[in-house]
Please model this.
Amino acid sequence: MGELSAVLPADRMVAVYRRIDALARDAGGADDGRSIGERRADVLVDLVMGKRYGTTDTEVSVVMSLPTFMGLSTAPGELEGYGPIPAELARFACARVRTCVFPGCSRPARDCDLDHTKPYADGGETRVDNTDPLCRHHHRLKHAGSWTLSQPVPGHHVWTSQTGYQFVTEPQPYLDEQV
Ligand SMILES: [Zn+2]
Model:
């Protein structure tokens, strides 16, 4: 037996764990003699080796005080299953962006991946001005190189197609700004 570990941004770590755990809980029947830990390990191997599973909803919860939510406090929020995260990131996760940030996409943020505008592997940090929700489809398009994304001003997303055409999405207004 061997052990494998990875150091990931907290939000991705929680999302990866939740997905593996959800798939493991669905795997096997009542007569499955494997422990939940064994099933999680089997699911991890299956995913890495390319086995395709059906869609499983993965929910990541962020909890914070009302003053933090309103921007009146810098007390940290809590990423469930991980621990404290900076107030700024907690507010982003819950309030700043409510949908996928690809132009015209209305997929709710809770159903999206968290994408690093500048990829984490290239030194992109998990900060409010470098982390936004992208639905799985648009996340894959970005990583396939069909579109490039920059964020010259936090919340202003500049999408550039392979032919050089650009779309810009602006920060989404808070609900009380829409009335
Ligand atoms: Zn999308």
